[in-house]
Amino acid sequence: MTDEAKLTLVQINDVHGYLEPHHELVWSASEPTFPKLGGFARISTALSQIKSAGGEMLVLDNGDMFHGTYPAVTSKGVDLVDAVNALGIDAMTAHWEFAWGPAHFEHLCQRLHYPMLALNCYRTDDGTRPFKPSAVFDKGQLRIGVIGLAATIIDKSMPPSFSTGRRFDINEEAIAAEITRLRGHEHCDLVVLLSHLGLPQDAQLAARLEGVDVILSGHTHNRLQRAIEIGGTLIIQSGCHGSFLGRLDLLIKGGRISSFEHQLIAVDESFQENAAMAEIVDTIMHPHREYLNRCIGQTNSALHRNLQLFSTMDDLLLAAISTSAGTDIAFSNGWRYGAPIPPGPITINDLWNIIPTNPPVSVTEMSGSEIRHMMEDNLERTFAADPYNQKGGYLKRFRGLTIFGKIENPAGHRIEKIFLGECELEDDEDVAVAFVTEQGVPAKYGHDRRHLDVTAIEALEDYISEGRAQSQTVGRFYVA
Ligand SMILES: [Zn+2]
Known about the structure:
Purple Acid Phosphatase, chain A, domain 2
């Protein structure tokens, strides 16, 4: 490269299949607000505007693109292919894309106009990689190496079918070797990590690795207003659901970033819809609109997942599944995805956003001791002091229990007391529990586990259409 060059990195992360504008939770000092953000047609316009300024641009997707809404999950991601190809993405990495098994995803990738990168995904039988670890892009005078890091929890916290014949890791030596190869053999001026590990994990990587200029961080849905600088590495992350784009304008002098500007861009109504993309989205959505727009009830309070220790949206889900199973206690995973539902009507589309996997409602019998161990394990997965041990989402959601504990305590010793109703839960007490998915109650816990003949969405629809959507607060973790 010559002495001075410019590059604009644009980050798209954790879109979760949201093709159209949707409500998003934006905090104000007093209460949440729910503007309509996102949508591929607006994102297209935003990208065109950045490109039309004439500079060099790379558009990178952190993954969790192909799963999370009705059109995404009912087509196993396939219906989104035309739309994502038209966005002009240069490379991606992945997480929920593995929901239909590695073979399906690898097949889907063959239809993408850009590479899927994962340095940390290996075949378990021969140790080879199913995806390229990195890609090199020539942009004007600059040569940029992009390394993909898929979610490492795919074979640890997700259902086993996600990772059949595959394993995932965080291996600093392997990443360092690829950085060396890109800078040496490939003559890259700049190295970017496109990561789906999560922000705490990426911050630790930045502190420990040499030679990383930028980490585009995904998975944890952080809306970083300011880029983080750690040891010469810049880190950004840009929300979720396509509601925001991250823009990082870099000035490179003498092989180093000499200055930068960062913007978290809200994809709001100021971006006119790109007509060609609007048509692609409409073609995908048209067959589903009548079904998805059906109103099934009302909520007086906002339903959302934007808090760590509890969620009004999951309170409703847990109320619905425990009602359909006839239990006092219910568990679900602390999922981060799911567009909020402001006070007002609830549609079928909202239910698919709440729980796009639409699993059966399941029941099992658990002892008090098992519940304690499961929650301790979840607290460690969520709040581990070593970020590489953080494998959860938000805290596991639960109903029927009141738990007091300290988050900062050592692993296995965070919970002080668990109450079932007014009484303390005894270790040898057996209780019936409703749950959804193995992320809700992992297979190693409980006995007499069985699926009921009702899905989560059917349970929600029944519960809401009976006018019971005003979710009761009966399950909280209190920091003691
Ligand atoms: Zn993720």
